[in-house]
Amino acid sequence: MNAGTTTPKPMTGIRRIGKTRYMVQVAMLAAIATVLMLFDFPLPFAPSFYQIDLSELPVLIGAFAMGPAAGALIELVKVLLNLVMNGTDTAFVGEFANLLIGCSLVVPAGVIYQRKKTRITAIIGMIVGTVLMAAVGGFLNAYLLLPAYAAAFGMPIDSLVGMGSAVNAAITSLPTFCLFAVVPFNLVKGVVVSVITLLLYKHISRILKGEAMG
């Protein structure tokens, strides 16, 4: 490299599309994610208070189109909008979990995709994100979220384990609850969100004026 020259810094999402457009797109994707949170359903191997939804879909698309920081911001705004609209029935434990576990999917996926924007790196990013989401979800539920949820509602942990046992006989303790309910739940959610993102991203990225996957 010649003296006096500098390597250009990679453009962030804000620098690429402008601050106003960036914030509009974050707000729009967060609003769509908030609406998608309203449509949820249980899975047969997990207690009914674990409801799967597709709210991470617009968040992941935003992370791909505008960068991982935008994905984290969209996730945060989504959670805040849902609190404003619907309040909380989990003493904020569910919202905190949604934020952390959602970010564990979209941020790593966004980081990997931003390094080289191809279909292959998008797939790799989503696989890594899905695995991390399952691992982070299991760890946080075991050591933070489920104990906090039980404490907030004055329930013994055994009661939560019993709810798991009612739908899955393999669940006999908090570790097995996380292994056989929480981890599969997040794996299923990550795979579903990733597949739909792969199908839709190229089209939606044009609307967002992001880069299309190769």
TrEMBL record:
GO cellular component terms listed in the entry, alphabetical order: plasma membrane
Pfam families: ECF_trnsprt
Protein keywords: Cell membrane, Membrane, Transmembrane, Transmembrane helix, Transport
Transmembrane segments: 21-39, 59-84, 96-114, 120-146, 153-171, 177-201
Any GO MF annotation of the entry: riboflavin transmembrane transporter activity
Membrane-protein topology: Multi-pass membrane protein
Compartments, as annotated in UniProt: Cell membrane
Similarity section: Belongs to the prokaryotic riboflavin transporter (P-RFT) (TC 2.A.87) family.
Function: Probably a riboflavin-binding protein that interacts with the energy-coupling factor (ECF) ABC-transporter complex.
Protein name, UniProt field: Riboflavin transporter
Organism whose genome encodes this protein: Candidatus Fusicatenibacter merdavium
